[in-house]
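Quick illustration for those who missed Monday's session on complexes.
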Amino acid sequence: MNLYENDAGTGGSLTAKRLFDFQISIFMTHLSNYGNDRLGLYTFESLVKFVQCWTNLKLQTLPPVKLAAKYFELFPEEKDPLWQNPCDDKRHKDIWSKEKTCDRLPKFLIIGPQKTGTTALHFFLSLHPGVTSNFPSPVTYEEIQFFNGANYNKGIDWYMEFFPIPSNASTDFMFEKSANYFESEVVPKRAMALLPRAKIIAILINPVERAYSWYQHQRAHHDSAALNYTFYQVITAGPDAPREVRVLQNRCLLPGWYATHIERWLTFYQPSQFLVVNGLQLRNNPVAVMETVQKFLGVTPHFNYTRALMYDDNKNFWCQMVEGGKSKCLGKSKGRKYPEMDSSSRTFLTNYYREHNIELSKQLNKLGQALPSWLREELQHTSWS
Ligand code: A3P
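Prediction with adenosine-3'-5'-diphosphate bound:
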């Protein structure tokens, strides 16, 4: 049996997909290529008639929607789109509307994970005159969260709407921060397809602290598992624990498998495109971190953060310096006040993350990036035990 179709797009003239096990071929061609070319359709139909007349091959056709259903039944892995930059392929660019531009895409991504200082880095970067963040999302308040979830199916036009048209595409640095890109299985592949030249920034703090910060975040958001169970109960819960506790446990623990997640990113992006920021240093000495980040991005003009940031003794964090020597800090949800972590939880998590941290140190050595102080400390615990 052969199925053929001349009304579905691949952007090329004619493509054929053979499935030898079933002896099925699906022929697809982009009708718009033949928009003004009756000869094209005529040729295609004549070819089909010729094959029917002179061979034993059986040819069938279906209306477009049914054919699409058949196609995805045969090739389910193609159900998920993989958006590429339309301007990276001449054939795509030729049929891409002249009204549109490919410049409304970010040059770099801050990928998270959550609770490591991603909002502070986003805030500080937004002070830079050469750097522009996305318009805030009305749904998530700020983050677009395009590559990881259902938004991806809304397509690249939807994504591009979050970015202004740059006044100078080569010098303007647009970026977005979605802090749950870091641990997502699907994001690195999708990001690479659309943004192959992008730079990627991850921020890491001690995964032990990150887990606790997430737990406190969930308490502040009245998550019932976080309110009803202690941190120790959550992180040590077994497979029989209530579902909500396991969900919280996963959100506390899994993003902290740093080496596993970074490895996934590095199967798609070159080491030179990937920067690991030390979140503890960002908290204590953001001026130094912003120097490193500017250098990594190659953004101009060089921005002097010593004049833009100040330490706020009430907030106990670094903030923007505004007129009259006053400070503008991140809101209450960042830099929360909560009790110290109990020592049993800390011991449990130190052991839990030991192997992950060893892997991370090897990875950072390979990347030629300095080990953060918190990682060196954790590794020292390892050599004593
Ligand atoms: P806590 O609220 O647990 O202290 P994210 O923005 O990725 O969710 O990270 C939030 C964390 O950023 C905060 O966690 C806080 O420790 C850290 N942080 C680092 N620099 C900060 C700053 N200048 N202002 C507020 N929080 C900062």
